[in-house]
Amino acid sequence: MKNYLLALLLFPTLLFSQNINYSYITYLSEGIDTKTIAKEISQFRAKEFIINSIIGSSNGEAIKFETESLASDDSGGLVSVAYNCDQANKRGLLLAFVGDNKNQDGLLLKAYGFRAISLDEAKLLLEKIDKLREEHNKYLGTDTNVNNVYLEYEDIKFILYKDGGSKIRVLWNGFEIVWEDTAFNRSKRRLDKWFK
Q1: Of 72, 108, 126, 180, which is the most exposed, with the fewest CB atoms less than 10 Å away?
Q2: pTM here?
């Protein structure tokens, strides 16, 4: 299975990609395990996206850059990766969404997509989400999975709620992913630590 997945990831002709600003969606063939693809994405595909869509052409020069996989939720639905390239003055947070997504024909397929956020914006966003959870803790806990707090950042929507603990539903470009509390906290903590 791992060789099949690796072959699928290495041969983009088998995939459909849609480029949208600092993001793109790639549709996968059936039978791909979300958790397995999440690991491949954090280790390989995130780097390809960072090179192609964030850093850009090397113009024949060697360019150094770093990546650090920060966290992934248990289902593999949202993977966070920090990136830094001093030469291109690019640093930030890359969110990799993994799950069901409708293609142009309306078919629901397994897919993954990347959304980059600059470091300063990412820190502000994660801090804002954390503060909203704290400020509205009583309201969110009053009625489980009924009371919600909504936040929008550019083209990403966050719905804060409680259902057996704090949850963050993230809506972006056709994906609807639950960002688990542990993965969110780990992403925030590791992003701050990595860029000290």
Answers
A1: 108
A2: 0.85
